[in-house]
Batch of 3 targets.
Target 1
Amino acid sequence: MDTYKILEIKESVFENNDRQADLLRIDLKKDKTFLLNLMSSPGSGKTTTVLRTIEALKDEMNIGVLEADIDSDVDANTVSKTGVKVIQLHTGGMCHLDADMTKQGLSGLGTKGLDLAILENVGNLVCPAEFDTGASKNAMILSVPEGDDKPLKYPLMFSIVDVLLINKMDSIGFFDFDLEAVKERVKKLNPTIKIIPITAKTGEGIDEWADWLRTEVKNWNAN
């Protein structure tokens, strides 16, 4: 006779998070605030990309940034120097943000008057892909030094994002990185994904990325 129960809770946890995420999107829609969930592994260039994005769009949009990390405020301090609203979120050891955590962060940041809120998620290619944050769109960065095999190793991440930024293109000559192979692998997982090669450090490709964001923010507010 069994002396304990085994309770499978994973599905219900995700279902509850998905409901919270849908409600958050409704609120953001009412406020006309576009939330971008930006994901990647550590060291891919997320913060540099955020800085370039702010530089490209700050004269035409009110921008706020949520910096999520297990600890430290290094990234929030860096972003604050641009003059945009920024808040640092500490996850208490968790390797992702869920919808409720994102809602708390947005409340602390304050979305009134914000056109674009950028959530720089915790650096990880696994956990963040599993949780809907309530974002309007999901984006990820894959940097050239990480290798072209990442879509094979982390298929869920590549399958749930709307746009893929392939960063550090200026270093492609130093690594065994097949850009066309990456595009083919990603398109098999996600046929409608937008792929934009960039070098955040120099600004290469940022115009195309900024144009994509402009269109998405406009569409978000129009519907």
Target 2
Amino acid sequence: MSGKTADVVIVGGGPAGLAAAEAAARGGAQTVVLERQKEIGYPIHTSGGSWISDMRALGIPTTLYFPIRKVTFLSPNNACTFHYPDPVCCVLDVRGVYQHMAARAIRAGAQIHPSSPVEGPIIEEGRVVGVRGKSALNEPEAWRAPVTIDCSGFSSTLATRAGLHAGYRRYGYGAEWDLVAPNYPADELYLIMGSNVAPAGYAWAFPRGNGRVRLGVGVIRPDVDEDARTYLLSFTERLPQLAPAFTGASAVEYHTGLFPSEGTMKQFVMDGLMTAGDSAGQGSTLVGEGIRFALYSGAMAGETAAQAIRRGDTSARGLAGYERAWRARFGRDLDIALLINQRIAAYSDAQWDASLDLLKRLTPEQAAAAIRGDFTMNLVLGIVRRNPSLLQRGAKAFVNTIVKQLGRAKPVTPHEITGFQP
């Protein structure tokens, strides 16, 4: 087995791995990315829904995302639409974004090795000191480094084999067509719930410009034992009101993917090893959104890795600043997202219809903040004030569980919202 060395070895050339590579290289670390596929951004495993403010903050060019001005929620017997003249959400050119991030990492000094699958970590005296795998020539190869970052996605190739966590038991399973759809409304995004289209999950239609639309179905395993592919194949029969939008449409790509749906790992680091992105469960289980979180998390991990190498301490303690910073920034919101996900995954069709009645009372800004997972006390109280019945139904205890997560010991009472006029 040939042996090579670097300061930081990153496993996985997705958004977390590429962001980590750029940050580590900018921090002065000799950085290598090992990607098992033959090209960056292939195959696609995600629908690419995201948020414009984050793409701006992350430096993603406007040419690589498509703004959405109309968002429609559908349940079996209800509908709710929000208009955004100044768009807040978007659909990414997923392959374009990944390759853009790869170019940034390379310009920062990182090296990317496609067609280089990693089989597992090299562990010495309880410490991860590198990885073993195959080169692009399919020959055994080992890389050694003071820091290895697992960005291998759902498989968590290193974290599971190193004993950092046991792997995911609850997960979203999605199937999607990328269509040319000449009759689809140009900038309307659909989120569709109900047992007929996506039990314990949702279906989506995401326009991405130039007549292209991503139509998908996701379900949560093992909450249900349904196959998302079956529901996708019969989508227009199951939802005839959308069939005209897909008249004359045909697929040019087919995507499938898995998304961790049980919250973040209990630990992100051990001696010599860090995890970022889906491999650490760092995504929103509310809607199965992972890309922006992976980009932020990877950058945080890469920056911490470079700092640890400069200090000469790549132990779990030396890497722990990354975990503390990540949890301070994202932990609470993603914990709340998981609570909501676990609740709505069991909704009946009647509950979804009732939920859309509640949703209709929100402002477009409140709806966007809730879906984005920007949970604040003002948002929660604002939603309750527009829907006082939440404190009179079985949802009262759930609302106060979220309020407690937000750091308030006192429950919300009907007295607080008396006299409120929506």
Target 3
Amino acid sequence: MKKKVRLLLVALLLLPVSVWGQTVDHMAQCYSVRYVKEHLLMQSGDDFNVIDTDIEWPEIANFNKPVALQYFLSQMMFGYSTTNLDSAYQQFKSGLGSQVTFQLRTLPDDRRFCYVNMSARLKSYSPGQYLCYSISCESVPESMSPVKAKKDVAYVIYDIAKGRVLTTEKVLNQRLIHEGNVYQSFYVTLFEPLSDDEFNAMADASIEGVWLDKANDSVGFKVSVRTSQRQIDYETMLPYQNVRYLITKAGRRLMEKKPKKAVPILEMLPNKWEGDSIYSLVDQMPQFEGGQEGLKRYQSHVVPPSNSAKGRVVVALTLSKTGKVKDIRVVSPLTPEIDRHAAEAVRGMPDFQPGLDHGKPVVVRMYLPINYKSE
């Protein structure tokens, strides 16, 4: 029987508190992933670009900034080598025009549209050892759009201890596969998600990416299959011990060795938002509309993933001077699926009553624990 998972938003931190003082947020973090999700319409002359962004940006891993991973993600998605997400993302958007925030007077020509999709999602995470990511960047222009078509996909593993990015070629011994030096059972399990008809019609197949899942002692594979009629892309998980002989020394070390104790560096979240200081404690803390009861009503409409891990996620959210949720990070993770759900649950919250300091609204960062319990 599948267990239901119940979501419990811990409301203690969302109640108004009078403290008669203020504190800028300088809390050191061991882990932080920032969640950026946008749907934008950009205009450049007569051309239009629709941007869909779903980025889980790594900020802190095991008390340190994952600099090499940040450079890799920024270069692949935006074409800029930097660790600053905001500057790279802004330059990228500027190259596609200005954001449309008003009603257009005439109906634009569909042939001048381009659809841009950017995704960087955390696949798995092992404390002190690695972060696994899937990255996808795609531009689909219509016939009169000046934007060039492209589609780039990558799966990478960030080795936290060594501070390096491992591509699929560095983790999987593709030569053994290409030469057919694998057990027959490997192909059986790798192609198991295909139907009999799809398997029989297979003309070509390739492994586009791999990631590690130490918690479940398995390895994930992104597989691309081409038949005479279409291309089929899917992901599948195989037991680690069954494919260990295909994993390189670098990958086996991450799966089999214990993480080394990190030397903590006091990494903190940004303490400015659009030029204003971010406070963690003010005279009058922000309040969820309706207080505890309002939070319970909101919680009742949020459906958590079923049959998934139980535990606690801590989300850091920045509330603007008008009480809007503007900046979301997971600072204490559970699983990528649950973390993603927690970030979305916070993103969907209605406006708060803003925090006040000396009677004036200020920007406040709050830390919201969210419990996922099985029933």
